[in-house]
Amino acid sequence: MADKSYTFPEGFLWGGATAANQIEGGFNEGNKGLNIADVLPGGKGRLNILKEPGFNFEVDHDKYDYPNHEAIDFYHRYKEDIALFAEMGFKVFRLSIAWTRIFPNGDETEPNEDGLAFYDRVLDELLQHNIEPVVTISHYEMPVNLVKNYGGWRSREVVTFFERYAQVILNRYKNKVKYWMTFNEINSGLVMPIMGLGFSIQKEEDKYQPTFQAYHHQFVASSLAVKACHEIIPEALIGCMIIYAPVYAYDSNPENVMHALQEERLFNNFCADVQVRGEYPAFINRYFKEHNIELDIKAGDLELIKEHTVDYIAFSYYMSRTEKEAKLPEEQTQGNIMGGVSNPFLKASDWGWEIDPTGLRISLNELYDRYRKPLFIVENGLGAKDTIEEDGSVNDDYRIDYLRDHIAAMGEAIEDGVDLMGYTPWGCIDLVSASTGEMSKRYGFIYVDKDDEGNGTLDRSRKKSFYWYQQVIKTNGKEL
Ligand code: BGP
């Protein structure tokens, strides 16, 4: 139990979050086409592929396993899983729609009915259990055809394909989905362009121009989706979705403080500034100049971006980041995806992600001060190895402690005046890790019997945290 009790707003959206590619499996069923996650191998080597130049998006079964192909088989087991979410008391469930179920190659003119019907079944099942769906339109799931034949988001044509896809699903599910978001963790492309921007950099020095041109296309695409959403479902809310990791200066040396500010603005603020304020921020002009970036902006783009801004800001929060202008190699953090130096005040998860609940309170305050829009934490959680006891139970007190501290930080931020809509912890059911492809990096309240080699029954069972979170929701966050 936390020492203090918090008051969360009436109607607070408690739930859990997932992505199609990490849970569904059925990668070639129902006429689905290949997407980026389908060609990413499993194992710790995946992270290097994501961060280093040169990936070719080819499948090589002799060399690798592809854990997303089966994932946790939500494609066939969604009814059982949704019943478990309902038992926990979920008000909302965040899922993504796999673009390649709807447009297998991305560039067709007509959608695939099998794919559309699958999500009808899933959404109906959620609604029958009084769970509101929260849908991510694009979660690291670009069709491989668009990657190989168009160069991913470098291509302007992809904007049209995405707009068509967004319009199809907005129309089809207009009576079923009230909460939407455009691109998952849009700013992740700055460190891992493969998943978010749909291309791999071939040479490090060539990354700037294509990266920011691709971003411009995504901003236009995002505005078109926001416009379509507001027209098709006027009562719905549509948000952007960013990774937020507050950047601390390593010490009070003004050079380090300035460096931390620059990193904070580029990584945390750039994408949100465009999608929330509707314009490129002033600081980016100098960055563009220094990196020889010249955007190809078509007539009407900037007006479109200005006019169709998002209704709320969704974000993932896993860690903070500590920065120093000149860092020695031995000072670098091992795990934090965005880099930085180790913070002597913080412990890290088994995967080296620094655990910082106060950083969540800081993030909520910074975001709300800057944008004055409702905030929605759509990912947070502890990736950890679980042990199954002889009686089949999983006593994941470490996960409960992590979540309790973060929910308490949310409670503090609400007292600070922040407008927070909801909380959907990541991987509410164990799933395939995005960065490593492992099953053993578990986040769930629900255990799934499957290991890193793909063995297991896929049976589901309730962890200790399942009952704890059930109580949190039941008391609207009063009992932590
Ligand atoms: C975010 C992604 C998710 C997810 C999560 C945890 O970056 O939006 O897809 O997987 O992080 O990361 P990981 O799976 O690498 O532990």
CATH architecture: Alpha-Beta Barrel
Radius of gyration: 21 Å
Please tell me the total number of domains.
1
Which cofactor or ligand species appear?
A: 6-O-phosphono-beta-D-galactopyranose
The helical percent reads 25-40%
Q: Helix/strand-derived class?
A: alpha/beta
Please trace the helix and strand order, writing H or E for each element. EHHHEHHEHHEHHEEHHHEEHEHEEEH
- Numbering strands along the chain, what is their spatial order in the largest sheet? 1-2-3-4-5-7-9-10
Class in CATH? Alpha Beta
CATH topology name: TIM Barrel
Q: Which spans have pLDDT < 50 for at least 5 consecutive residues?
A: none
Distance between the termini: 5 Å
Number of strands: 12
Largest sheet: 8 strands, parallel, barrel
Provide a count of the helices: 15
Strand content: 5-15%
Shape: globular
Identify the CATH homologous superfamily: Glycosidases
Explain the layout of strands and helices:
Blueprint (H helix, E strand, L loop, with lengths): L12 E5 L2 H4 L21 H7 L22 H15 L3 E5 L2 H4 L10 H16 L3 E7 L5 H7 L6 H16 L6 E5 L9 H5 L10 H25 L4 E7 L3 E3 L4 H24 L5 H8 L10 H7 L4 E5 L4 E3 L33 H15 L3 E5 L17 H20 L3 E4 L22 E3 L11 E3 L1 H11 L6
The chain binds 6-O-phosphono-beta-D-galactopyranose.
